[in-house]
Design a protein that fits this description.
7 strands; 2 helices; 3-stranded antiparallel beta sheet; elongated; alpha+beta
Length: about 100
């Protein structure tokens, strides 16, 4: 997944990029949980005790685990900054692997 943001202040870029990154991750996680459960008839409150978000600090890899089963592996985000014709772009690529389909 790619995301591009341009011509904002540094603070606005950081806030907007962080929000977009979390939004994208949440979408991927919701899709994986729905696939694992076989239904979209669930709420976060119903499953919160069954889900873990494990972050390996040394590598930046993140795992979403439900009932002891890895659903998603997120790899470190790839960041790029681009300066084109007086415009500044900050872009990220979200790389992940789905383990449940």
């Amino acid at each position: 997944m790619d995301y591009k943001l341009n011509n904002f202040t540094t603070s606005a870029i950081a806030t907007s990029i962080a929000e977009e990154l979390m939004k994208r991750k949440e979408e991927v996680v919701k899709k994986a949980i729905t696939a694992y459960l076989g239904t979209d008839n669930w709420t976060p409150a119903e499953i919160k005790e069954r889900v873990q978000w494990v972050i390996i600090q040394s590598s930046g890899v993140e795992y979403i685990v439900m009932d002891g089963i890895t659903l998603i592996t997120f790899f470190p985000v790839e960041w790029m900054s681009i300066n084109e014709e007086m415009k500044y772009f900050l872009e990220f690529n979200l790389h992940y692997r789905e383990h449940v389909h």
